[in-house]
């Protein structure tokens, strides 16, 4: 386990000309979540991997990607054992221990249902599903937006939500009738269902639960304000010249 004190064990000052340029090396956690984060022959690949590598190059930072399950990754960021995570939606709880970068892409949260469940496909809200006794799967420690948070806080409805440790587990349970619906990114869920051999058993529901910008989430214990400013400037530069849009289009289309 890596511990950082003072400014950062990862940041050193290099003198170039008359000014000081800070060189940084960051460790970013990831786990399989195609097409955003995937295992490749030479290490992780995917949309988020390409976006973050581009951003870090522009910021003058090197990045090492480390496989860490999401719930453990958040705890590691809190204590500075891992520097950051990708594709993080904003929450006040996380902002207490981590910096949020400028947004670098957008994400949609929707629903997956069983392909042969015509009844639930006609439902027009999560609340209606829950009041009808439906069981909805959630990924542990993921943020699904204020609507879901409010429903989970309602004692009359929260028993309809069931938490699991991974999105693929949810999809398998959905296909077997353990869940009536699951929350997640439809692009990733369709890809995962296909890879699991259950692509014909599940389908995307038309309901959009959340549309949100996502950010790099970087530990306040190991990443300083100067590094954050450089990363934010790199994101804005790559957005302004179309680089981020081009990378996204290469995976998801325009």
TrEMBL record:
Signal is among the record's keywords: yes
Keywords: Signal
Highest rank taxon of the organism: Bacteria
Database matches in SUPFAM superfamilies: Periplasmic binding protein-like II (SSF53850)
Family matches, as Pfam families: SBP_bac_3 (PF00497)
Stretch forming the signal peptide: 1-23
Chain coiled-coil ranges: none
UniProt keyword annotation of Signal present: yes
Domain named Solute-binding protein family 3/N-terminal: residues: 25-254
SMART domains per record: PBPb
UniProt name for this protein: Amino acid ABC transporter substrate-binding protein
Native source species: Roseospira marina
